[in-house]
Amino acid sequence: MSLFDKAKDLAAEAAGKALTVGGEVATKAGDVAATGITVAAAGADKVTGGRFTDRITGVSETVEGLIPLRDRKS
């Protein structure tokens, strides 16, 4: 095996590990963002006295659906 082939194999292995770790971090960040959206929606619903619950829920669900790489439970 040449030095070039060995370097190419090591680079491919490192790229694979980076994608795995990066995906895990992005998934955790997406979950935290979704929690923040849920909390904000609950606060908005409380402040409006429940008058706009349907609209607030619809918007928060739409925004949560836009979060990439989120580990969706549904």
Describe the structure.
This is MT0933-like antitoxin protein. It contains two helices and no strands. By secondary structure, it is mostly helical. Helix 1 packs antiparallel against helix 2. It is rod-shaped and about 70 Å long.
Relevant terms:
74 residues, 2 helices, mainly alpha, 78% helix, rod-shaped
Write a concise synopsis of the structure shown.
By secondary structure, this protein is mainly alpha-helical.
User: What order do the SSEs take from the amino end to the carboxyl end, as H and E?
Assistant: HH
What oligomeric arrangement do these chains adopt?
single chain
User: Which residue ranges are poorly predicted, with pLDDT under 50 across at least 5 consecutive positions?
Assistant: none
Distance between the termini: 48 Å
Give the fraction of residues assigned to helices.
over 70%
Radius of gyration using CA atoms only? 21 Å
Shape: rod-shaped
How many DSSP-defined strands?
Answer: 0
Sheet having the most strands = none
How big a fraction of the residues is strand? under 5%
Mean pLDDT reading: 81
Count of individual helical segments? 2
Protein name: MT0933-like antitoxin protein
List the helices and strands and how they pair.
Layout: H1 3-47, H2 53-65
Helix pairs in contact: 1-2
